[in-house]
Every structure is written in structure tokens, then in C-alpha cells.
Amino acid sequence: MKVMIVGGGGREHAIAMSVAKSERVEKIYCLPGNAGIEAVAQCVPIGPMEFEKIRDFAKEQKIDLAVIGMDDPLVGGLTDILEAEGIRTFGPRKNAAILEGSKAFSKDLMKKYQIPTAAYENFDNADDALCYLERASYPIVLKADGLALGKGVLICKSFEEAKAGVKEIMLDKKFGASGNTMVVEEFMTGREVSVLSFVDGKTVKTMTSAQDHKRAKDGDEGSNTGGMGTFSPSPFYTEEIAQYCEEHIFQPTVDAMRTEGREFKGIIFFGLMLTEDGPKVLEYNARFGDPEAQVVLPRMKTDIVDVMEACIDGTLDQVNLEFEDNAAVCVVLASDGYPLAYEKGIPIEGFEKFEGKDGYYCFHAGTKKNEQGQIVTNGGRVLGITAKGADLKEARKNAYAATEWISFANKYMRNDIGKAIDEA
Questions:
Q1: Three-state SS for 396?
Q2: Helix (H) or strand (E) holding 120
């Protein structure tokens, strides 16, 4: 079969490598892809928001399965457009992708169906938000309602900080139209855990857990990023917690979406906070996390194409979803200065050191080939270096050893990814 993947980051590289393992797949296309994805798929220079071009390409190539990796095209309705042409598509339709596309929608859904989450209020007027914040207790969290590349969240320790945050989100529109509505949420404390799940509209099957590091610098200092590294599984996500989440969060979310006439088929990423009062939902995503996919998918034993097709067909209950009994750690190699200002176009060396190394992966996120055919940096997050191990400590040691195999002039990384493992 022919598979088309939409996107061009580390997540899509991990998806492409998983799809390539399936014996059912003859050909993979990636739109637009990147310099690393080229090794397993034919990259086609079509952007993820060029819906008509994507549709036409899928029809011309007689694509059997389309996989949408990114949030923007899902929220924009690419699945609906492809399905209208009879193309089997993995990823929620527009009316279900709103689960990620609007934080106000998802918070209202959780309140209506009593799914545990932080107390909150939604505002579409800056003055009303400020009146509320004057009386609020701190710290408090401000969130732009729409998609903001994982960066539209501000933690404010005082009214003065909150006032500046309202200006940034609602008045200055730092995150564009995503800031037309703002969610004000109580600040929760605890361990953050990510649980990715496959969903077929009624059945939910969770993958192995993961834990992400969002801040740019060691010790969770610095600016919020799209993710500087991750590890899987999370030692803090116990069987007891998993059972609670299944009963009170995972299945109720899928049921709520179906009840609302928004049947969800694809991936639901549950961002959880393990609080003293039990697990609560921090956020939902409607696709694989990045870089969570880079530690979860390499540990997946079940054929990903079979699982995706079962989600489309509503037969996920018949699939035995299996993962290896080991661990994986991903360390992101970034361009120094990310997520603010950084240089691009810097040559990268050392890829050949990964060849023939079982359990080691170099996922490309922000790379491209220059005119000389050399792979160079093309983004803030450049590569995701993933390694497996018998346990988390071994995987962490292996991942950091592998980061030394790659060199580029402005290479930057955190040195404490998975350090929480030592505290578990």
C-alpha cells in the first residue's frame, strides 16, 4: 500500500520510521518531510496547509492511507477534505480536532462531563479578564485559546505579571488569533505525565507513558519551548494511576466527544498533572506529541498501520496493542538561542555513526539539504537523539552518549533530561 504522511518534523520522522516497518507498505511519501525523512520516504515539497495540493497529490498517487501528523492541518479540516475524496485518513475530523484547537472548548467539555481538570474561566474581553485577575489567588495560568506551537501558556506569580500577560495574549496578539479568547486557570502542582492513545470513536487504547521537558535550560529554567527532550515510560505513572485515568479521564473524554456529535478517531494526547488530589487534565492534543512520539513509537511492537486502520474502521477493540518492556530517552539537539533568535544553515556532521546501531535513533526535526547536498540546520529544534535501554537509567546514559556523535557549530542541549528518573 501507499502511505502519505503530512508534516516535516521529528514526530513525522518517527511516524515514517514506524510505518516503514510494516510489511504492508510499499511506498511512503512525506509532505514536505525533511533531510532525515528522505531515508525512508519520498519527500514532496508541499506545505502542510496547502490542502488542495495535498488532496490532488493524494488522488494522483492513489494513496491508500493518509496520516496527518501536525495540529494545524487537523484543526483546519484536512481530514474532511481527504475523506470527501474517498482517501482513508488517520487523524480527527475538524469538528473533533477542536479538542486541541480550542482550550475554551476542551475546558467546557471537561466541566460538563466532570472530567478532572483545573478550575478555570474563559474570557474574550481583556477588561473582564483583568477584573477577574485582580481578585484571583496566585500563581495563576493564562492560556491563549487556540494553537500556539506549544508556547501560548504563561504562569503568572502576581497581578502585575498577569496584567502583562493579558496584554501579550489579548491586546498585542503575540499568538495571533489564538489570543482572541483566553483561559485563566488555577495553577496546579505535581508531576506532569503524557499519555498518548489511539482512539476509534468509541474505544481508547493507551500507549506507554512519557514525560516531557518544556523549558529551554537545565533545571526547568528559561523560556517555554516545543520540548527539549522526553523519556518513556514515566516511573510516576503507576498502574493504580493508569486505572484511575482510564475510568475518570480517558474513556469519559472519548464518550463525551461522541455524545457531543464529535466522534474522535485518531490520537488523543492526554497531558496530565499528578496532583495531591489525583490526576487532572492539563491539556489535550489531537495528534502525536513531539518529542513524545520519538520515545513511544520506537518501543511499539504492534504494526502501526494495522492500528491506524482499526481506528478508521472502528475496530480498535480487536487490536492487541503491545510495547517493548524497556525504556527510551530522547535528548533534543537545538540551535543555541532557541526558542528566541538562532542561526540556521549550519552544517551537521556525524549521522553515519548511527548506522547499524540497534536501539539508537537520530530523528530530524529542523534540517534540510543545502545546494551542495550537505545536511544543515533549518530550525530551533534540529535533531532528536533517542536511545533505548533495559531501564530508564541505561536509556538515559545511551542517549547522552549518542548526542556526542553529532556535531554542529551552535549545538545546544539540556543536560538533565530524565534526571527525575533518579528521584523516582
A1: helix
A2: strand 120-123
If you average pLDDT over residues 174-193, what whole number do you get?
92
Task: Kindly give the residue spans of alpha helices, DSSP state H, lying in 94-238.
Answer: 94-101, 103-112, 126-135, 159-166
Does the N-terminal peptide bond of residue 339 adopt cis geometry, omega within 30 degrees of 0?
A: yes
Instruction: Find out whether 273 and 192 touch, Cβ atoms under 8 Å.
Output: yes
Nearest to 277 by CA among 215, 183, 186: 186
Cα angle for residues 339, 70, 372 (degrees, 5° grid): 65
Strand partners, 419: none
Cell of 407: 556535531
Which helix (DSSP H) or strand (DSSP E) does residue 294 occupy? Answer: helix 293-296
Write down how long the chain is: 424
Given a contact cutoff of 8 angstroms between Cβ atoms, the answer to whether 286 and 74 are in contact is yes
pLDDT at 42: 98
Task: Work out the average pLDDT over 317-322.
Answer: 97
Cα–Cα dist 203/230, whole Å: 27
The C-alpha atoms of residue 111 and residue 120 are separated, in whole angstroms, by 9
The strands making up 120-123's β-sheet, listed across from edge to edge, are 120-123, 182-186, 140-144, 153-156
Whether 116 contacts 278, CB under 8 Å: yes
pTM of the model: 0.93
Give 32's Cβ-side CA count (13 Å radius).
13
* pLDDT score of 178 more than 90: no
Handedness of CA 61, 289, 143, 263 (dihedral sign): positive
pLDDT > 60? residue 424:
no
Residues 6+ apart with CB under 8 A from 86: none
Got the DSSP string for 327-362?
Answer: EEEEEEEEETTTTS------B-B-GGGGTT-TTEEE
> pLDDT at residue 149 above 60?
yes
Judge whether residue 143 has pLDDT over 90: yes
Q: Please name the residue ranges forming H helices in 181-248.
A: 239-245
pLDDT at residue 147, rounded to an integer:
84
Mean pLDDT calculated for residue range 167-189: 92
